[in-house]
User: Fold these one by one.
Assistant:
Number 1:
Amino acid sequence: MRMFEDTSSSAQEVYVTLLAKASPAKKAQIVSQLCLTAWAGAATGIRQRQAKLSEEDLRTEMARLMLGDKLAARFLSRRH
């Protein structure tokens, strides 16, 4: 099974083997880093489209993107 289109099969096998051997703490660290990378990429995209957003408005847009409008509205209403 190919997970990555831009990675050779042998490199992918090494990656999967290393992940299988990783401790739960290491796996959690990897997932955390992937989440931060995805968040940063999404924030960059929003910033490129709406360069004049304040930090608070950026967080609001990120909440809408990640949670959807309805859940983001509930979450954000509890912050104020």
Number 2:
Amino acid sequence: MLRRNNIAFEREKYYSAMEGRSFLAPLPAEFTASEVGPGVRSMVLVLHHACGVTQPKLQAFLESTGIQISSGEISNLLRRNLEQFHQEKTELFDAG
């Protein structure tokens, strides 16, 4: 079962009069890679790579569950910030 889990982040913001600029606390690392959270990201990766679901079908599925996402964002989820997977693949290959 899928359910929406919107998260509102409250980040500290400070103004430095000495430096003449503001500082904004960063988001948690798992939420900086895309517009969606890590749960949606992992689901998209599994459905596409393990189940062979095409990008248009992914978009239709996500939108049918109430997740508004563009085809460009789906493409970004499938192509960007995948270094950890490549590293794991290399480690598995090296281990034999």
Number 3:
Amino acid sequence: MGYIYLYTGTGGGKTTNALGLALRSVGHGRRVIIIQFMKWWKNTGEYKIRKKLAPNYEIYQFGRKGWIGLNNVGKEDKKLAKKGLEFARKIVNKKNDKQNTHQQLNYHH
């Protein structure tokens, strides 16, 4: 049985909380899959560390290049978010009890 954590709000700390929990899980030998929505930048610590923490840590990003802001969400963004949700559904349905999936999605329109 896994857990779902939802971090929300306009301030900082959501990614930091999710990554802290992910790191602790990897330290306990669990497999962690990070799914980021509306993010594309590969020059972040959470993305760069993936090879060092593999195979227990994976990260996937579903977003187009550039920061578009929540007021400028377009068809391409929604298409990528849907693709990310479909990907997440496949991962969660694998029912691996040694796996944590962390997703970052909280869009209100």
Number 4:
Amino acid sequence: MRRIFLLTALALIGCGQVEQGTLAVEYYEGSGQLKVSGYILDGSVRTGLWTFWREDGTKEREGEYKDGLQEGTWTRFNEREEVTGYIDFHLGKEVSRIVVCE
């Protein structure tokens, strides 16, 4: 299976919460379907908003990384992209979880 990474240099300072020197990253499956998008700092540290998609193109989960660790509230979605839950992280560790009833 062929996988493609797309890196784009961001030259703007103050673009949301993205820091100077940050690269936008998109990961595509061999089918061409976008699987993951986010930002990396210093060549390998995940930072800012990251979004993960299923093979059918629907959003699976979305949340923030800070210094390479999950931070804050992450949102999970079902196949219809309806919110199914929230998971709160601090320093990469889950601290609470809320499940949304359908």
